[in-house]
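Regression test case RT-17, inverse folding.

Input:
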């Protein structure tokens, strides 16, 4: 009897330990399952309606590289560059923000905030697409110059609806 109780307690302890590890891993990589009811534009492509997993790449030096996976996390769809974005009031649920688009166009992903965080990820688009998005959405859009395959070495700027370029710090200072 004593052995079966000890074994049951040990198994229960292991379950709680692994459950805690999973929760901390989600907080570290901000793993979030999102479902889009229609097509959504992300930098470089359009995702069809469906379920996806967004999470921060496991990089202690750069916390603004987002990986997008299929719903089962068996296929990495793309890796996206983002910059820090801030909200004054954190929400208890995931917040996905979009750039306004003309009727009939897919919504364009602007930012993603993990539940409870007031710091999120604002997505960085290729320059020509960012200019179009800024003009149609009447908001600034982050863009990158050619990065030659290394996202960490790219120059990031913002384009205003007028077409004027700004540095990232100036844009975020004006918006907060």
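Golden output:
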């Amino acid at each position: 009897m004593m052995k079966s109780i000890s074994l049951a307690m040990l198994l229960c302890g292991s379950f709680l330990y692994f459950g805690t590890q999973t929760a901390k891993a989600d907080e570290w990589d901000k793993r979030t399952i999102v479902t889009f009811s229609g097509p959504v534009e992300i930098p470089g492509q359009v995702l069809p309606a469906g379920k996806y997993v967004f999470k921060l790449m496991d990089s202690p030096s750069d916390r603004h590289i987002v990986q997008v996976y299929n719903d089962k996390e068996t296929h990495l769809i793309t890796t996206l560059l983002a910059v820090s974005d801030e909200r004054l009031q954190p929400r208890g649920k995931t917040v996905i923000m979009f750039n306004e688009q003309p009727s009939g166009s897919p919504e364009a992903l602007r930012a993603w905030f993990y539940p409870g965080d007031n710091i999120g990820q604002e997505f960085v688009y290729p320059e020509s697409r960012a200019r179009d998005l800024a003009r149609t959405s009447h908001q600034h859009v982050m863009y990158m110059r050619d990065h030659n395959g290394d996202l960490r070495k790219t120059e990031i700027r913002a384009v205003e609806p007028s077409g004027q370029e700004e540095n990232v710090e100036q844009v975020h200072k004006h918006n907060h």
